[in-house]
Amino acid sequence: MASGPHLSFDRVSKIYQSADGPVHALDGVTFDVGRREFVSLLGPSGCGKSTLLLISAGLLPKSGGTITIEGKPVQGPQTQLGIVFQSPVLLDWRRVLDNVMLQIEVRRLRRDQYQKRAEQLLASVGLEGFEHKYPFELSGGMRQRVAICRALIHDPPLLLMDEPFGALDALTREQMILDLQKLWLESQKVVFFVTHSIPEAVFLSDRVVVMSPRPGKVEEIFTIDLPRPRHLDIRETKEFAAYAKAIRDIFQAYGVLKDV
To answer: Could you say which residues of the chain have pLDDT below 50?
Structure first.
């Protein structure tokens, strides 16, 4: 498929069955993620953001609608992508390089063909010299960098990220945001990024998809027309503030944010 969106959602819905009855998580979600595009999905807790990401990866069945990757319907687990979760999910008994190479082993690819790439990825996120450390010897931000390298080792065209910086302290989170922007600008992969943070979404994204409270629907899509590469001080500009306020106003209208 030489043209068209890389990832496409068409009237996607999800209903969970629970002891108290059905829970309607997603309702009629429709939008596209283009090639080389960084798109953030932003919304309140419980609106189905992570659910939509898992459905995208084929790890969770949808209740209705269609999802396509490269024009092909998602009907089961997908292999042509990488996933980064909020928790790094590293194996404590494996060293950093071996954690990155786990993806290669699972895919039954030749280790000798990917080890140099793994070392280069680790160096690109500031982990050169840490290849033989164990996870317990790393900070939280360093562990998440390892997880990102593991997701990228097989060079997937699509990267799914589910609040990857949510558990980090504020300073580490800011550095990780800068690191991710640098990686994306260099690779130009498709990134579908789930977050609760308005500033994070505006800073990183080409477009921000704003979700309503449950059942999650697409409330509005913002195109972020800010120059790249973006530096932290861009958050002090009136243009950045205008995007953040427009998104915040939506959540205030829903009562998700209440100004005392």
So the answer is: 1-2
